[in-house]
Write a structure and sequence with these properties.
With 117 residues, this protein is an all-alpha fold. The protein has a domain of 73 residues: Cytochrome Bc1 Complex, Chain D, domain 2 (Orthogonal Bundle). Helices cover 54% and strands 0% of the residues. The chain contains 6 helices and no strands. The structure holds heme C (HEC).
Length: 117
Amino acid sequence: MRAALLLLLLLPALTSAADVDEVTGLIRNPGWEQVRAHCGGCHSHALVTSQRADRNTWLDTLRWMQATQNLWQFEPSVETQILDYLAENYPPMANRRRAPIPPSLMPGSDKEMANKQ
Ligand code: HEC
């Protein structure tokens, strides 16, 4: 019974997790196949998925690779799909830290409470 309840509580978290391609590690959202096709030839897709940036910075990265690393030119529609995908799925993260631990869960919080009473 308790296990069933736990599963029920966890289910939303499990189902809302992003669908990630097992081979490339890319999040399977619109445009991912373009990125799979164009962004894994010279380096691992992991270099892509480990990066976080806004659209302009992604564009800069592409332009830099085109100017210096022999990255080919894209059809405008393909480039748009790639940039939309990257900006949408790998956006900048202002703060990657977890939320602070509630004081009630900190070591010694029982004593703290007892002292105050
Ligand atoms: C023609 C080869 C080539 C292709 C194709 C290619 N890259 Fe790169 N990319 C490179 C090279 C070379 C580097 C530098 C690797 C290093 O630093 O060791 C690089 C580096 C990167 C970096 C790290 C940049 C940094 O600031 O450190 C990212 C992110 C990246 N590529 C994303 C992409 C994406 C997204 C695509 C698809 C649109 C792509 N790459 C396709 C050659 C390529």
